[in-house]
Specification:
Chain B: It comes from Devosia insulae DS-56. The structure holds two protein chains of two kinds. Chain A is of the alpha/beta class. Chain A is built from ten helices and ten strands. Chain B has a single domain (11-36, 67-273), classed as MetI-like fold, CATH 1.10.3720.10. Chain B has helices spanning 3-7, 11-36, 68-103, 106-121, 124-134, 140-167, 170-177, 182-218, 230-237, 246-273. The A-B interface holds A 51, 53, 56-57, 76, 80-81, 83-85, 87-89, 91-93, 96-102, 107, 110-111, 114-115, 118, 150-151, 153-154, 164, 167-168, 170-171, 177 and B 2, 4, 105-106, 169-171, 173-182, 188-189, 192-193, 274-276.
């Protein structure tokens, strides 16, 4: 069976300057892959390229196949059909991920309605409201009725991220792309969101592309990792192998740094 | 709506709003009244020439003996029509161009931006005068169209910048990933989010349009007589400003009160309309 997302020799450049070089990896249906590396290593750009959302200034070459459709060079009309059914995004910054002028219920309702229309039926009125509340409950939001009526600035960062996840789920994607979804949150909220994502992805059999610079976070949620440094994939493999016996200097440095951090925490505890 | 907003009423905001409502409401009421009732026939010679204000003639009479207050009332109607139509024309053209530029390819965007900058470098009044001069007859319609076109450049530039900023937000990317078309993004996310700033700018444009129309009329390029534009009243009062200062003062007050009123109203409305500002400050 063809993988859900296949990236082959992806090169991204801006004004001739390379951002991502010869990147290749694939995600099968239901598989969970982590993309890790420091900021500026091209992780997010890769995710953008996967859904054809790259800024115009960036030139992409190579092959990106999402749900059997070549993404690079595809017209917007084709991509529009692809997005929302095949892949959905969860972003790093939960505040800018929600439109400040729309109540939570409206924001979640929109992708729900669009998804329903794609499946050939109209969703509106009280049926739509029920679906919205059901989704908010699935992402474990307390008092979903109250949250549904709130504006984004009236709820907390963790709650906003849960709403963003609900919006992504509303599309019923086969692949969920989470771009540093826990980076802007405090540690306890971070753990809760991770648990939620993990549960939802397993439950629905979705594939997950998890982007992070945080090693322990990645190790917790994915099966395979791609380690990126300056736009190049330096190491690929199952989580346990890569982190257990890192082959590349950069991966080794990452693992050592993470261990040193854990050690420091245990030392003071 | 929220507990925060309920416990922190904004005295300053509401005062702004009420004062704006009062001034604009007054002008609208007067303008509507002129459609059904006027104190005197605007063309009738009802008293002595250049009489000072009295109970019979609240703003005195002009040099032909016509009631001056009647003409100022009609001026309200003309000013409102001019302001609203000019902003509607300028807003429609400007917002469309601005949004297109924000979405366009880099080359097209640069070309549009440069064109707008050149247009803005010309004073609004000058562009309006050019348009009026290019048409055969001076009429209210030509003046309004000219002002609308002149204002559209300013609106377009503002829209372009505001829209570009909104387009950088993650919720736009999220909307695009969930398959929203670009028109959907414009109407659902971009326009609502730039509206608070844009509407305040529209109010400024309204004020500019009213003043510019008065200037055009003052120069004889606006509404021809018998339309009593405030600008024409001011121009007629020019020769008698020392003997009958009320002729210049009354239309001046009318003009300023409308412009200030609209600006206050816009300020107040913006604070109500934007949930992120509610209860803040």
């Amino acid at each position: 069976m063809q993988p859900l997302l296949q990236i082959q020799d992806l090169n991204l450049t801006v004004d001739g300057k390379p951002l991502v070089t010869d990147l290749s990896f694939s995600i099968a249906a239901g598989e969970r892959l982590g993309l890790i590396g420091e900021s500026g290593s091209g992780k997010s750009l890769t995710a953008m390229a996967a859904t054809g959302l790259l800024p115009r200034a960036i030139t992409a070459t190579g092959a990106v196949t999402l749900g059997g459709q070549q993404v690079i060079g595809a017209p917007e009309r084709v991509l529009n059909g692809l997005r929302g059914t095949v892949a959905a995004f969860v972003f790093q910054e939960p505040l800018t991920a929600l439109d400040p002028l729309l109540r939570v219920a409206q924001q979640v309702a929109e992708p729900l309605r669009r998804r329903a229309r794609r499946d050939g039926h109209e969703l509106a009125g009280s049926a739509l409201q029920r679906e919205v509340l059901a989704l908010l409950e699935q992402v474990a939001l307390p008092q979903p009725e109250r949250i549904a009526r709130s504006y984004p600035n009236e709820i907390s960062g963790g709650q906003r991220q849960r709403v963003a996840i609900a919006m992504a789920l509303a599309c019923q994607p086969q692949l969920l792309i989470a771009d540093e979804p826990t980076t802007a949150l405090d540690v306890t909220t971070q753990a809760e969101i991770l648990k939620l994502l993990d549960g939802l992805v397993r439950e629905r059999g979705m594939a997950l592309l998890f982007i992070s610079h945080d090693l322990p976070v990645v190790a917790e949620i994915v099966e395979r990792v791609v380690v990126m440094q300056r736009g190049v994939a330096v190491e690929t493999g199952p989580v346990r192998e890569v982190f257990g016996a890192p082959q590349h200097d950069y991966t080794r440095a990452l693992v050592v740094a993470a261990k040193a951090f854990d050690g420091a925490l245990e030392g003071t505890a | 709506m929220s507990a925060v907003a309920a416990t922190a009423p904004r005295a300053r905001g509401s005062l702004t709003l009420w004062l704006g409502l009062l001034l604009v409401g007054l002008h609208i009421a007067v303008a509507l009244l002129t459609l059904v009732w006027l104190p005197y026939d605007p063309a009738a010679l009802t008293g002595g020439r250049l009489t000072p204000p009295s109970w019979e003639h609240w703003a005195g009479t002009d040099r032909l003996g016509r009631d001056f207050f009647t003409q100022i009332m009609i001026g309200s109607r003309i000013a409102l029509i001019v302001g609203i139509s000019a902003v509607a024309i300028g807003g429609l053209i400007g917002v469309t161009l601005g949004v297109l530029a924000a979405f366009a390819t880099r080359l097209l965007d640069d070309a549009l931006a440069a064109t707008l900058d050149i247009l803005i470098a010309f004073p609004t009044l000058l562009i309006a005068m050019l348009v009026v001069a290019a048409s055969d007859t001076a009429s209210l319609g030509t003046a309004v169209l000219a002002l609308g076109i002149a204002l559209s450049a300013i609106v377009a530039r503002l829209t372009r910048i505001l829209a570009k900023r909104v387009l950088l937000m993650d919720y736009i990317t999220a909307a695009r990933t969930s398959g929203t078309s670009w028109l959907g993004i414009v109407f659902q996310h971009v326009l609502p989010n730039i509206w608070p700033t844009l509407s305040v700018n529209f109010a400024l444009q309204f004020g500019l349009a009213v003043i510019a129309e008065a200037s055009l009329s003052y120069l004889g390029l606006g509404a021809p007589p018998p339309n009593a534009s405030w600008g024409r009243l001011l121009q007629e009062a020019q020769g008698t400003v020392y003997t009958a200062p009320i002729g210049a003062i009354a239309p001046g007050i009318a003009l300023v009160s409308l412009v200030i009123g609209v600006n206050l109203l816009a300020d107040g409305l913006r604070d109500i309309g934007d949930p992120t500002r509610r209860g803040s400050r």
